[in-house]
C-alpha cells in the first residue's frame, strides 16, 4: 500500500509539473491539457491553495510519518508550480492600462468578439470612436451589424470600408473587418480558411498594412483537429505576410504551441506588458480568465505604443485596443 501511495504522489506531482509548460513537452494541443492551460491564472491560484491545504494536512497528520512526508512533498511541488505560474503571468504583464490616445502617425486596432450582437453596433461604435480606431476586427459580427457600426461612425465623421465573411447560418460564423478611409482604399481577398470566418483586406495601391480579421473554432473535444488546422492557417498567414496586422478571437493563448513560434509576428499585448490580462469571460476578474483575443503584428514593421483591455456592452469578451507605430 505504501508503494501505491507514493506512486500516486509521483503521478500527481508529474501532472502538476507538466502543466507549468505543456507546450515544451508537446502536450498543449492535446485534450484536455489544451483547455486547462488556457486558464493559467486559475492554475496559479489552485496550485498555491493546494500547497497551503497540503501543508496543513502534513501538520495535522504528523503522527503518521508516511502520510506527513507525502503531504509535504506534494505541498512543495504545488508551491513550486504555483510560483512558476505566477512568474509566467507577471512576466507577460498583468497591467490593464486605461484607454490611451492614438498616435498621430500610427494605426489603432480594435479587436472585439461582439458575441453575436451582445455588444450592439452602438456599443462598438462608441468604443471605436473613443479609441480613434483605424481598424476594427469583429468576430461573431454579421454583415448587417458591421454596416450599422460603419454608419454610426460615419455620423461622427469617420468613413470606414466594410468587409465580411460568413461560413454558416448564425452570427457566430460571421467575421467583419472595418478599415478607415484614412488608411487608403482596400479590397478583400481570400483569407485563411477558418471554421468561423476570416477576412483579409489588402491596400489597392500596395501601400499600407495587410489586415486580417480571424476567428478559429473553439477547441472542443470533437473539434481539436479543426482548431489546430484553423490556428495553423492563421499563424502561417501572419508569418508569411510582411507588415501584417492580425486581429481576432483566436481561441488560444500564448501557452498553446501554435502561438509560441510566430517570428516575425508577436502578440501586441505581450509586447506591451498586458499579455496576461484576460479577455474572456467578462464574468470573471480580468486577472482570472483567459487571454484568447489577440492582435498579432509583424515586429519588423510595427512597434506597440500601448494596449488597453476594455469591456464593451454585453459581449462575454473584452475588447483589445492596440496603438501601433511604424518601426524605426
From TrEMBL:
Span of domain Endonuclease/exonuclease/phosphatase: 110-317
Gene Ontology molecular function terms on file: endonuclease activity; exonuclease activity
Keyword Transmembrane helix assigned: yes
Protein name in the entry: Endonuclease/exonuclease/phosphatase
Entry keyword set: Endonuclease, Exonuclease, Hydrolase, Membrane, Nuclease, Transmembrane, Transmembrane helix
Listed transmembrane segments: 42-63, 70-90
SUPFAM superfamilies: DNase I-like (SSF56219)
The organism of origin for this protein: Beutenbergia cavernae (strain ATCC BAA-8 / DSM 12333 / CCUG 43141 / JCM 11478 / NBRC 16432 / NCIMB 13614 / HKI 0122)
A Pfam family the protein falls into: Exo_endo_phos
Amino acid at each position: 500500500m505504501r508503494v501505491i501511495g507514493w506512486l500516486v504522489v509521483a503521478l500527481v506531482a508529474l501532472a502538476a509539473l507538466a502543466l507549468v509548460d505543456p507546450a515544451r513537452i508537446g502536450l498543449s494541443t492535446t485534450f484536455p491539457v489544451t483547455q486547462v492551460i488556457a486558464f493559467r491564472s486559475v492554475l496559479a491560484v489552485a496550485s498555491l491553495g493546494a500547497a497551503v491545504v497540503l501543508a496543513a494536512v502534513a501538520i495535522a497528520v504528523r503522527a503518521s510519518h508516511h502520510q506527513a512526508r507525502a503531504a509535504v512533498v506534494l505541498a512543495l511541488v504545488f508551491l513550486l508550480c504555483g510560483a512558476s505560474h505566477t512568474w509566467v503571468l507577471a512576466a507577460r504583464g498583468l497591467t490593464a492600462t486605461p484607454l490611451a490616445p492614438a498616435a498621430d502617425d500610427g494605426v489603432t486596432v480594435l479587436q472585439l468578439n461582439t458575441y453575436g450582437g451582445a455588444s450592439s453596433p452602438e456599443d462598438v461604435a462608441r468604443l471605436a470612436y473613443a479609441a480613434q480606431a483605424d481598424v476594427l476586427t469583429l468576430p461573431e459580427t454579421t454583415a448587417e451589424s458591421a454596416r450599422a457600426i460603419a454608419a454610426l461612425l460615419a455620423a461622427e465623421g469617420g468613413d470606414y470600408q466594410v468587409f465580411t465573411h460568413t461560413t454558416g447560418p448564425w452570427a457566430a460564423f460571421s467575421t467583419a473587418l472595418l478599415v478607415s478611409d484614412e488608411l487608403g482604399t482596400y479590397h478583400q481577398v481570400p483569407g485563411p480558411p477558418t471554421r468561423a470566418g476570416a477576412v483579409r483586406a489588402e491596400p489597392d495601391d500596395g501601400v499600407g498594412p495587410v489586415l486580417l480579421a480571424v476567428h478559429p473554432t473553439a477547441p472542443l473535444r470533437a473539434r481539436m483537429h479543426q482548431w489546430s488546422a484553423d490556428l495553423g492557417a492563421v499563424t502561417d498567414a501572419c508569418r508569411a505576410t510582411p507588415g501584417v496586422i492580425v486581429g481576432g478571437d483566436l481561441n488560444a493563448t500564448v501557452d498553446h504551441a501554435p502561438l509560441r513560434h510566430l517570428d516575425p509576428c508577436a502578440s501586441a499585448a505581450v509586447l506591451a506588458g498586458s499579455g496576461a490580462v484576460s479577455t474572456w469571460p467578462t464574468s470573471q476578474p480580468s486577472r482570472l480568465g483567459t487571454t484568447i483575443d489577440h492582435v498579432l503584428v509583424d515586429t519588423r514593421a510595427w512597434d506597440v505604443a500601448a494596449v488597453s483591455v476594455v469591456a464593451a456592452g454585453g459581449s462575454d469578451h473584452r475588447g483589445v485596443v492596440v496603438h501601433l507605430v511604424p518601426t524605426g
